[in-house]
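Handout, page 2. Input:
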Amino acid sequence: MKTVAVLYGGISAEREVSLNSGTQVIAALREAGFTVRPIDAGADLGAIIAALTPAPDVVFNALHGRFGEDGAIQGVLDWMGIPYTHSGVRASALAMDKEAARAVFVAAELPVAAGRAIDIAELAAGDPIPAPYVVKPLNEGSSVGVTIIRRGDNNRLRLLRDWRWGDRALVEEFIPGRELTVGVMGSRALAVTEIVAAHDFYDYDSKYADGGSHHLVPAPVHEAATARALEMAVAAHRALGCRGASRADFRYDDTQGEPGRLVLLEVNTQPGMTRTSLLPEQAAHAGISFPQLCAWMVENASCRA
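Output:
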């Protein structure tokens, strides 16, 4: 029987999300028959390494955000020679860095929104690209810090005043229409889900607050758009060099009719892992239970060592 250490919690802005994911994964892995060693990963790296000694057979990485999905903990686990779930150092670092990921997608000829990385101070002088546009921290997940700037509003200077995510940001045109997402397991795209958010867009509260959004799976979109979204999700997974499971997020502009314009926003290498999260929901739609999904991730774990 394999011993699986579940790393969860962490020290990023997404700690509560990770605690929720980890708690659900721990229960599912026990249900699947694994011996589970929960590890709440705090700021003391030495304590994390000590908790991983003796080494488990596999680490289930249920961390989110900085240090959990940006290649940092992946490098530690590679160094220790412990197989772990989800993507390795390079893919994790690329996907977490929105500017780098965007360059990879462009090179792979995947459609992205018009935009560029800026020094955040540029907002003081005016709009860096025509409004409406979206401002995103370069290295945060779960839509942390994401803001839409519209023509005539006062959000630009307010955002600059309250900004706390480093000196640089990504600005991209705002794509009207619908929010779609596709989960990938290995080389298989699972389904297309439409996310209907209670707010203006799929922000942090929409993702995690009760009633913040609801999911339509399969998404009620044109069959050509469905096929293209499935294809693009796998292509983006491969372009970044992901392994295990990932989730690609899209905007789908059908305001001029269907099939509309499909734009790749990002790839999440550490999708949420509660039973009602998007990836497990799509897996269930494909006939894969939550314990089966978690067990598949464990069986497909690896490390660079």
